[in-house]
Design a protein that fits this description.
136 residues, mainly beta, 5-stranded antiparallel β-sheet, two-stranded antiparallel sheet, 6% helix, globular, binds zinc ion
Length: 136
Amino acid sequence: MTFSRPLPSPNALTAPYWQAAHQRELKLPRCEACAKFHFYPRSACPHCGSTQLGWHTASGKGEVYSFTVVHRAPSKGFEELVPYVVAVVALAEGPHLMTRLTQVQPDTVRIGMPVQVDFEKQDEETTLPVFCPVEK
Ligand SMILES: [Zn+2]
């Protein structure tokens, strides 16, 4: 028997993010007035208050800002993943994004580690952005 993990429920604000992710592309909301990126998606720019927002493809590069290693699965669906790393990644564009690190031994993760986006298809509608160490 397999157990599923919870999946995102896109809404009007977040749908462009999830649609891009399903195309294996990381897109971020950016203010057209002050040109700053922000994340999570919202209806007004957190920097200047403008509602003139657009979506722009991000570099997919960043570094580990903070992380924790999960050893106890929060539900049955996560048991095959433990131990896994939940991280806050400081994106090159500025915003921080919470994600899971993949293709890495948890005990080798360090603050400041360069990472890049990767994508994990979950089903026919949903693909999750994850991050992995930059290959050297
Ligand atoms: Zn702005």
